[in-house]
Amino acid sequence: MLDWIKEINELWEPVFPFLADFAGKLRSEFKGNIAEAGPFCGVIYELYRRRMGDRFFLLTFPKGVEKIHKEKIADQKMALINIVPTTSNFENVKDGSIDFLFFRGAFFFPSIFKANLPEVMRILRKGGLAILGGGFGKGTPKEIMEAIKERSRTLNFLLGKEEIGIDQIEALLKESDLEGKSELIDEGGLWLVLRK
């Protein structure tokens, strides 16, 4: 499984600058603690390159994913990105410690992990923002999408990806009592924006 996760993260590297642009349109000011969560990470490297934030964290799960990023951080000389192995409940992440969180694949891989929206809100600082979901984002050029979509689809299948719709995310929001603190974006994928 870890080999597939590593491959899909590397495959998506051309998309990460455009997802960073997407994040920048949703949050005008990047200060404080910036984090990316889960197994499907890479946007954090682009945010770091652009210095969109003061401190940078990878909240990695499931177990073993941290090894992939240790190699990447060493190769790219990005020692200021801190790796925090955790779970999808962010058990060892302090309350109100994150100003911005990016969480790709949050809802689509229930066989590996389940996104816990109340726990996402718990770790966000007041005024913080989280982007959860998946897709290419609105600005990714068609040629980049075309170049990777077949292999990406295969890897997603191998990793147990399930398709979900807006109605299922709306049900999660209702269950978590977060309807008034959220925005759903269905252009360029399916994304949930949470504001605290």
Summarize the structure.
The protein has 196 residues and is an alpha/beta fold. It contains seven helices and seven strands; from the N terminus they run ααβαβαββαβααββ.
Which features would summarize this protein structure in a list?
single chain, about 200 residues, alpha/beta, seven-stranded mixed beta sheet, 7 helices, globular
Walk me through this protein's architecture.
This protein is α/β, with parallel strands linked by helices and 196 residues long. Helix content is 38%, strand content 22%. It contains seven helices and seven strands, in the order ααβαβαββαβααββ. It has a seven-stranded mixed sheet, sandwiched between helices. Helix 4 links the parallel strand 2 (55-60) and strand 3. The model has no long low-confidence stretch (mean pLDDT 94).
* Count of beta strands: 7
Strand content: 15-25%
SSE pattern, N- to C-terminal: HHEHEHEEHEHHEE
Strand order of the largest sheet: 3-2-1-4-5-7-6
Give the count of helical stretches. 7
Q: Radius of gyration from the CA trace? A: 15 Å
Termini Cα gap: 34 Å
Residues in helices, as a percent range: 25-40%
Q: What topology does this entry show?
A:
Blueprint lengths: L1 H10 L4 H11 L6 E5 L5 H7 L5 E6 L4 H12 L4 E5 L12 E7 L12 H7 E11 L7 H17 L7 H10 L6 E4 L4 E6 L1
Parallel strand pairs: 1-2, 1-4, 2-3, 4-5
Antiparallel strand pairs: 5-7, 6-7
Helix pairs in contact: 1-6, 2-3
